Amino acid sequence: MALRFIGIDPHTDGDECPTAWVDDETADIVVQGWKADDATTAECLETGKIPDSEAVVRVPARMAPVLREACDAAEAAELRRAAR
How far from the centroid of its chain's Cα atoms is residue 6's Cα? Predict the structure, then answer.
């Protein structure tokens, strides 16, 4: 796995902040966020189960530019991977 750091919450206090990476080998986007509260998780469960191997995380809207950059980087990584 080769995670490439994309960005961190622009309002970080430097301690355990939402962050985004892209795995250049798989083109997966990896996100660290706040654990969703019970109410958010319950609402998500209304549309389907959450497997034990998955989690609901919350990322602030101010990170939209970081997530867009992560999506662009993931798309580029996928194109490189497909061209091999």
Answer: 10
Q: For residue 8, what are the β-bridge partners? A: 19
Ramachandran quadrant class, 14 (left: phi over 0; alpha: psi -120 to 50; beta: rest): left
| pTM of the model as a whole | 0.83
- Based on C-alpha coordinates, what's the Rg of the chain? 14
Going by C-alpha positions, the residue among 1, 7, 2, 15 that lies closest to residue 71 is: 7
Question: How far is 3 from 23, CA to CA, in rounded Å?
Answer: 4
Give per-residue pLDDT as tens, 18-67. 999 999 899 999 999 999 999 999 999 999 999 999 999 999 999 999 99
Beta bridge partners of 31: 20
CA distances from 56 to 7, 14, 32, 68 (A): 20, 22, 10, 19
